[in-house]
Amino acid sequence: MSICKDDKKVDTNEDLFLKVQDFFDRIEESKYLQYRDGQRNMAYSVVDAIENKQILLIEAGVGIGKSYAYLIPLIQSIKNNEQFEGVIIATSTIALQEQLMNDVHKVAEMLELDSINVVLAKGKNNYICRKRLNDFLTTTGNEKYRYILDEVLKKESIDRKDFEEISDKLWKNFNVRTCSQMACPYYADCKLTHERPNYKDAKIIITNQDLFIQDLKKEEKERLFQGNRTVVIDEAHNLEDKTRNAYVLAMDKRYIESLLYRLYSSVSDYTENYLPPQQILEQLTNLFVTLRSSAKNEIRKTEGSIDNYFDYSRVNFQCNKRVEEAIKQLIISIEKILQEIQKRSTMDYYKIDKKAFKELECVKSIMEDILLKEKSKNIYWIDFADARGNYINLTYAPKKIDELSSKLLSGIHAGVILTSATLSSGKDNYHYYSSSIGLDQIVGKTVLKDFSQPSPYNYEENTILYCPQNISSPKNREEYLTDTVQEIRNLIEITEGKTLVLFTSKSDMNYVYEQINRNYFPFKIYLQRDNIDVKKLKETFEKDITSCLFATGTFYEGIDIKGESLSQVIIPKLPFPIVDPVVDYKASQYRDGFLEVYLPEMITKLKQGTGRAVRSETDTAVISILDSRIHDYNLKYNNLIFESLPFTHITNDIEEVKSFVNKKIK
Ligand code: SF4
Q: Does residue 184 line the site of ligand 1, with CB under 6 A?
């Protein structure tokens, strides 16, 4: 059924539903799609979310084709309803964004839509900044990089995708960070500022979650992405982190010093050199030295398990007596300086640097907030800026991310689809995810939690989950590492390479790598070293069929390899979050923080990691979890872990693994 309003054809819920139903009934005619129940069911739920402006939470198992499941009803709406204001799809990875650009055109073709206006809105760090490039060339004086500028001029492109030969490490020297706009000498012909696609006319905008959230935080009229567009957050398991990132702020010693110098110089005249008092500069040094040693003490509590500060992206610090004293002294000095500067600035020949003044006031209020400890409004942590842990940033974010996220989502005046392969922790249990992003606090919108559309892949036949029992617990580090080296070596030999090993710590990874390579080992192992070009590393591992890859962190979700070269995933240790003030704070809000926070965090990550094993219908794989705690049935979490994973063929017998590999993989 369709009705006419202002002479325009408008879909009703039933009309859109029937069209989507008809599409799936005729799916055999499609050259791009194979029929899948899960995809059809998900598409129907998306119809409801679009038409009733609901928030839909839906986990989509690997292989159901979730992109098509939301694109089909969305593009059908674009085709049939002129009043439909379009779509924003926000994902976490460029790879998925580029894939979606192709998928949009395929779905448009299947739905017999002649053309569709779709734009890719990448984050600005994907473009070259001419100003930074020029500064880089001048400071390095290295002629071997001059070709990049020539290429920029020749290709007339500043897009990362046109400079694939440049490593990520090199790219970071001249990509866009902050833009000085009209103050920049290249502003007049800067491609970034003048040639960004016209988002207003686009029916579909594909972007990343960071850019989308930053934009959503702005006043409506200042937004890059205007209109009441239906929103899809794909890879929505990252939404909480991305929302927090949008509110994270950091300061270091140099930043506060520079504020002081700016302020003093703004009220200086030709007759004197008015400089910040030595005392406050010393207090600042003292505070940051104290913070650094407090953070290092936190790390030492896990002594033996680290040798590199980069194992920790966030390190808690205790507001102990020394930190407290250092902060109190600094607050008194800042207060005095602010008063003094204000007094001096009343003499009309001084033009106070108002921005620096405000920022220093803000530094003071942050210091005051830290002293409130449990009652502070922010979570504070230390980031180490170098591998030796010599330079630190004091970083902070609001505690109530769930409230902020809920407010942002409530402000979207159209349907919102939140989807990913890993949203639940436990069978059909969205509780942890929903409360983390404040879905229970949404106002003015219905939240529909649709249970997981399971993967169509035959896990029973095509996979085996191996969890050895006679392996030392990670609590006994030395024995555990010795056993782990042995197990990993054996398992790699069984599958003849083709293995991805996902570690939770770089020090464990480096140790196991060195031990295995001490003697001759017939299979090449690639290691995720610091500053390595991640994209190239993945490609090399995929092409070198019998090779192995040892990795951590983003590789838990950022690697998608179909076929033989990834026939085994090994997880040496259950991926519980390591020292993490954000997770610690969340856990502190519950009576049983382990069960309510640490466990669901770990399960989500474990699902992501083990999910690398099967990426197509024909993939066969061994999944090995070498953490004996999984067998400790006295602990209440074991059942939850096994229930959350799709593997049904589970063994602790290595002979069974060998026979599976002989039958299915070799
Ligand atoms: S206008 Fe902005 S992005 Fe463009 S070159 Fe200048 S600083 Fe870089």
A: yes
